Amino acid sequence: MDEALFSLAAKASGAVAFAIDLETARFSGRIGELGLLKPDYALDDIIAMLAPGDREDFTSALVAGDIDLRVRLVGEEGAVRYLRFIGSRIENGSVSGLVLPAGRFSVDARDQLDRETRISDAVEGGEILAHYQPIIALETGALAGFEALARWDRPGVGIIGPDDFLSLADDMDLLGEIGDRVREMAARDLAAWRQTAAHAPLFMAANASVGELLADGFADRLIAAISKAGLRAGTYKLEIAETEIMREPDRAAAVITQLKAAGIQIALDDFGTGYSSLSRLDQFSFDTVKIDRYFVRAMATSASATKVVESVLQLAKHYGMTVVAEGIESAETAEQLAAMGCDYGQGFRYAGAVAPELAAEIVRSGLTGRIKPAMG
After folding, report:
1. 192, 257, 196: which is closest to 228 by C-alpha?
2. Could you say which residues of the chain have pLDDT below 70?
3. I need a labelling partner for 372 at 20 to 30 A (CA). Which of 5, 116, 145, 298 fits?
4. Are 59 and 101 a contacting pair, CB within 8 Å?
């Protein structure tokens, strides 16, 4: 069906016809119901009116030449509309079809779109940064390394924690981009800090989901970032949660083998919270096991939790792994874990995630009453 016939069909049905080529988007019919004020727009302007999470799908559909897609569009008066674009490529190379309503718009929808726009702009604008939680050598109380954690430094608001934006970022397929940025920043910052504490065996740990781990090019990008930073083998650890890695253990094992061959250590995060990985420890050759904070915090009141921690320590030592205890909140817990042979600890007893500038200061001078400076 050509453009003229689509326009006739639109008038007959009360819908809106569209014709889109590489540069322009033309609409005919009751365009005001779409929140449009004119029939002709630059294609980039129409794409900018779409919700950030819909833009890539819309563009891909246009390239493919067949489109049947539900999107959210912000009209020029600011209202959100749920629309359905249906069309196909015609002889002149443009994609033509109809725009139909596909649901009601609401205040909640507008709020959701605002959140999507803000997080999309934050990623593009470099507002997502790495902050660093210190990891302490329990035997000495000295700084041993850091775990890099994503934070949003939102102008006019301040630092926003991951619980308030990572889930939405995941829905928008931005998690990989955020993760790559945090892991790269972590490598660069560690390299800089090691210049000021050249004899200290500082390490950096950063997280990845199994989805990120198995994404095309993940290992190559991480290896390149670490190599560019000039970090030596064994100073960078990639943490993968137990429940995550057991989703696709065989595929994950292949990527882990590639990372380990490049000198990147692998840590099993949140151990004890998922299905048993005991039979998989040999397959993955983890370098480090992190005991979940639940068991560490429960040690103060639960003998069974203490037994779990003791068992993990024994198992890890059997396989030649180091152990990090998360969630340490008191000096007593730190002392108990050290006496049990736990290598490292992190938690609010020492510090939460801190900005890079404070992390650099902790490397040099420690944190009075909590952390000794990095030791050579």
Report:
1. 192
2. 1-14, 103-111, 198, 272-283, 376
3. 298
4. no
Residue 107's pLDDT is what?
Answer: 47
CA 218, 131, 126, 54 torsion: positive or negative? positive
Q: Provide the 10 A C-beta neighbour count for residue 235.
A: 20
DSSP SS3 for 126: coil
**129 residue type, one letter:** L
Q: What is the pTM of this model?
A: 0.74
Task: Fill in the DSSP letter of residue 114.
Answer: H
What is the longest distance spanned by two Cα atoms in the chain? Answer: 82
Please calculate the CA angle 349-353-359 and round it to the nearest 5 degrees.
95
| Residue spans of beta strands (DSSP E) within the chain | 16-20, 24-29, 40-42, 66-74, 80-89, 95-101, 128-137, 142-154, 158-160, 203-207, 236-241, 265-271, 288-291, 322-325, 344-345
Query: Residue 1's pLDDT is what?
Result: 42
